[in-house]
Every structure is written in structure tokens, then in C-alpha cells.
Design a protein that fits this description.
3-stranded antiparallel beta sheet, 12 helices, binds adenosine monophosphate
């Protein structure tokens, strides 16, 4: 833990755990010689996990979600479990030290798994995390998914997870009217298949009080991260026009990937 604490306090250096994990396979390969290195930003409930994981399947890169790393650590009943459960159940952020430690371990596993490239989901969430990441690797693109808060709250309340396969579903049927020049949003529920139905659980941090706290913390602590990437010309703003059927093709178009999906299925 001492090394991680130093990492967070000092300017990132190549001897840090995160840097070693990033560079263990190939230090700074040219962008055209490697897979994408993207980040997904956005408020809780916006759908980062859904769209990032679909894109990862399409592009053949790992989907690295720090929220999943935290939940895995929680369910492992390891030494950090009780501390993490208190933080997560209050909607607070885990310390930069712990998150970087969990992320470093996941990145170090990339070599053994034969993975290259990544889409990071839920990281960075603080300016410190953004600065550390910037110091250790090249991020090509940061996608900022956006939805109005009323929709975010309803989506989090409707979220269900299959306790067996880990997939996300949503039982909410949303029809929110547009106001102040913003278009309305309609989203059909995303029901699970029959075999997941009896295994659905609700995340312990998806209660109204905790969601509101997570949204408050996002606006206060994570919003500046958007500006960090905007000022570097890396931020792609994407207003979700509705549920997956409406949003997915538009997102692929915004990423210049509209033909990619067809080419991949033709090649399969
Ligand atoms: P998520 O699934 O992304 O909503 O994350 C669930 C919880 O894990 C968050 O509410 C935080 O407590 C914690 N967490 C995930 N990613 C981070 C991060 N980058 N920094 C701090 N805490 C995080």
C-alpha cells in the first residue's frame, strides 16, 4: 500500500504500479499498431457499462469497469470488503489508492490473457486519477455519454442484474417529456431472458437516496474530468437519444464504426 500511496501523492512515474501494468507488454506502441484505448465517462446509470461492453465485443478489446473490480473485491470477502461495502453503500467514491491498486492488478492480468487495447468504464472519476492515467498511457478517445438527471434516476431504480451471468437489464419503462429545449426520452424496458428471470438482483447502491448522492458526487468530483479531456481535444459528447435500439446505431456512426459491425458479421 505504501507504493500506491506514493503513486497518488507524486507525479506519476514509470516505476509506479499502474505504469508497470500498462507498459508490461509494449511501451507506447504506435496508435496504428495497437487496439483502441478509450475511456467512457458519464453519470451513474447513463449506460456506460452497456455501451462499453457492446463496443468491446465488437472491437475485441477488454472492458475494464472499475465498478466491477470494486464489486468483485466486495464479494471476495477479502481484507478490503467491509471498508468497501460501507463506502459503496453510501454512494461515495473509493479512495484513489484503492482504485489504482485494483486497476493495476487487472491491467497486469492483460498480458496473461493475451489482451491488447481496452475500454475503461468508470475510470478516471477524479482529477487525480485522470492525471495519473495521462502520465502512463495514451488515451485515444473519451466518450461522454449524457442523459438528463430525471432519466438517470429512473434508470438506476429500474436496473436489475443477473446474479449468475452478471448481465444488466432494466425493468423501467420511461417516457419523459422534453422541456427547456431538450427532447423527450422514451426507453422501453430491457427484460432478461427466461433463464435469468429468477436470478435478478438489485444493486445495493441503486436506492433513491444513494443514487442522488452518487449523482451529486459525480457533478462535484467527476465533472471536472470531462473538462480535462475536453481541453485536450479528446472528448466526444454523445447525448443518448433513447434506449439501445435508437442509441446504438447513432453511437456507432459518431465513432465512425457504422460499417464495422456489418464487416465483422460478414467475416464471421
Ligand atoms: P459503478 O459501477 O461505476 O457505478 O461503481 C460502483 C461504485 O464503485 C462507485 O459508486 C464507487 O464507490 C466505486 N468506484 C468505481 N469506480 C471508481 C473510481 N474510479 N474511483 C472511485 N470509486 C470508484
Amino acid at each position: 500500500m505504501a507504493a500506491i500511496t506514493c503513486l497518488v501523492k507524486r507525479t506519476p512515474s514509470l516505476s509506479s504500479p499502474v505504469a508497470r501494468a500498462f507498459f508490461s507488454t509494449n511501451s507506447h506502441p504506435a496508435r496504428e499498431d495497437r487496439n483502441v484505448q478509450w475511456v467512457f465517462l458519464g453519470s451513474p446509470g447513463v449506460g456506460k457499462g452497456t455501451y462499453a461492453s457492446r463496443l468491446c465485443t465488437l472491437l475485441g478489446v477488454p472492458h475494464i469497469a472499475t465498478g466491477d473490480l470494486v464489486r468483485n473485491e466486495l464479494s471476495s470477502n477479502g481484507p478490503l470488503s467491509s471498508q468497501l461495502s460501507e463506502i459503496v453503500n453510501q454512494g461515495k467514491l473509493v479512495s484513489d489508492e484503492i482504485i489504482i491498486n485494483l486497476l493495476s492488478k487487472r491491467l497486469a492480468a492483460r498480458e496473461a490473457n493475451g489482451e491488447s487495447g481496452f475500454i475503461l468504464d468508470g475510470f478516471p472519476r477524479t482529477m487525480k486519477q485522470a492525471e495519473i492515467l495521462e502520465g502512463v498511457t495514451d488515451i485515444d478517445l473519451v466518450v461522454n455519454l449524457k442523459l438528463q438527471e430525471e432519466v438517470l434516476l429512473a434508470k438506476c431504480l429500474g436496473r436489475r442484474i443477473c446474479s449468475q451471468c452478471g448481465k444488466n437489464f432494466n425493468v423501467a419503462s420511461l417516457n419523459i417529456k422534453g422541456e427547456n429545449g431538450r427532447p423527450g426520452v422514451t426507453m422501453a424496458p430491457l427484460f432478461p431472458p427466461e433463464h435469468c428471470m429468477s436470478k435478478l438482483i438489485t444493486r445495493s447502491d441503486d436506492t433513491e437516496v444513494v443514487i442522488k448522492e452518487r449523482l451529486r458526487i459525480y457533478n462535484e468530483t467527476s465533472r471536472p474530468v470531462e473538462e480535462f479531456y475536453r481541453s485536450r481535444g479528446k472528448l466526444l459528447e454523445f447525448d443518448l437519444p433513447g434506449g439501445i435500439p435508437e442509441s446504438w446505431p447513432k453511437l456507432l456512426h459518431a465513432l465512425n464504426l457504422d460499417d464495422y459491425e456489418e464487416k465483422q458479421s460478414a467475416a464471421a
